[in-house]
User: Which sequence fits this backbone?
């Protein structure tokens, strides 16, 4: 079935190229309609994710092997990326077999006119292996780790000598973390239940009721998942919820809640006491969150359509506010590789929006209450600068300790988590207290 798997991967990637769509959305849609075996679906995922992660590296190979520097059509470029990725990065497949498979595949696609070119470039790739600029060259890191040069420069300004560790971590497969639904079960029971269904999990040392999968095949198809015994949530997001320091009967407002994982965790920590109001600007996500809460049996959870940047005069006051704002997403590149290819200029207005959401959210907080500002990005402009600007304008607020120990790196007014040091999403967490 590998020929049909390759064609499926080609179709997904070509659709992404033409529609500028996210890989996870296109991949999920295609896999749900694919009738092959589980191993064939795994191969499709490997190819699609691999090509997305290493696009610039693959394009460098194409440019290097082109004898005539002419523009190639999207279907040809996608086939070449697939073939080169398989030859260079897929173990256990003879390069000659890969060359033949993609030449044959080209004959049945819009790339049929370029079978000779595809054959020549793939054969040269098989003969020469991975080609990179010299390490001293300005584009070495960009090509080696498939990051635009401007993004590499930005990361160097943030991480300095650790930049390459960040870049390398973006190509690693992230752990899939989950949280036990403590309203229904505990970790030992969940471990046993999942083991009976063929899945192994490992508890996290630094966070109770948190775990990660050692084997991840179809965990959403398990009885344990369908029965609401756990939900999927990265360790960074679970730590963000810990920084809220929730207490029984607290009221919580999550202003940018979708897809709802943090609000679910908060409701579970509260053991169905108090209340959790999860808001989002997109109506279809309200249903998504409501359905998720129903699966988990959360009776203290509700969801509402609301623009986080616009103050609701009837919004009420809350003991806790979670302000997880829209951001550039540079901390989740391992899961969404397309993010790294976006021009940085597209992020220019984010700090202003983030500050507006933070200022609006703060108006819902009771005196003595606790607000957590967070992002899944790594830039100072979207993290510390936003919080410090807010504190300068609002002396009634002050920074607070996160209550998180043994992980992350403290900054001016919060905690930074990084993929290469903390084995989770890149994240920023800044708790604030309202004194009056």
Assistant:
């Amino acid at each position: 079935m590998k020929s049909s798997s390759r064609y499926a991967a080609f179709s997904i990637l070509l659709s992404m190229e033409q529609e500028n769509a996210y890989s996870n959305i296109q991949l999920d849609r295609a896999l749900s309609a694919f009738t092959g075996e589980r191993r064939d679906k795994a191969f499709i995922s490997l190819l699609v994710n691999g090509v997305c992660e290493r696009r610039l590296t693959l394009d460098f190979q194409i440019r290097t092997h082109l004898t005539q520097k002419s523009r190639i059509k999207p279907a040809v470029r996608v086939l070449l990326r697939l073939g080169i990725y398989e030859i260079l990065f897929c173990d256990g497949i003879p390069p000659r077999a890969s060359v033949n498979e993609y030449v044959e595949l080209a004959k049945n696609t819009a790339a049929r006119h370029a079978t000779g070119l595809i054959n020549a470039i793939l054969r040269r790739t098989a003969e020469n292996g991975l080609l990179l600029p010299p390490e001293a060259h300005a584009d070495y890191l960009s090509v080696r780790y498939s990051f635009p040069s401007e993004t590499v420069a930005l990361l160097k300004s943030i991480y300095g000598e650790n930049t390459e560790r960040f870049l390398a971590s973006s190509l690693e497969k992230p752990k899939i973390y989950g949280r036990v639904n403590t309203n229904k079960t505990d970790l030992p029971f969940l471990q046993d239940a999942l083991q009976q269904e063929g899945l192994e999990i490992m508890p996290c040392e630094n966070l109770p009721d948190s775990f990660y999968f050692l084997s991840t095949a179809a965990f959403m198809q398990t009885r344990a998942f369908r029965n609401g015994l756990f939900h999927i949530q990265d360790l960074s997001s679970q730590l963000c919820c810990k920084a809220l320091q929730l207490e029984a009967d607290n009221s919580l407002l999550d202003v940018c809640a979708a897809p709802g994982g943090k609000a679910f965790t908060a409701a579970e920590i509260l053991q169905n006491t108090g209340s959790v109001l999860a808001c989002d600007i997109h109506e279809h996500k309200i249903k998504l969150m409501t359905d998720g809460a129903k699966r988990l049996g959360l009776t203290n959870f509700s969801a509402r359509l609301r623009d986080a940047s616009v103050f609701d005069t009837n919004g009420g006051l809350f003991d806790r506010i979670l302000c997880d704002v829209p951001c550039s997403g540079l901390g989740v590149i391992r899961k969404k590789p397309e993010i790294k290819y976006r021009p940085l200029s597209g992020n220019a207005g984010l700090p202003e929006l983030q500050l507006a959401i933070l200022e609006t959210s703060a108006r819902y907080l009771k005196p003595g209450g606790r607000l957590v500002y967070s992002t899944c990005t790594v830039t100072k402009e979207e993290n510390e600068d936003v919080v410090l600007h807010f504190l300068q304008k609002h002396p009634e607020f002050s920074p607070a300790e996160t209550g998180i120990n043994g992980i992350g790196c403290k900054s001016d007014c919060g905690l930074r988590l990084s993929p290469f040091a903390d084995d989770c999403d890149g994240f920023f967490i800044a708790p604030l207290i309202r004194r009056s």
Observations:
- The longest strand covers residues 365-375.
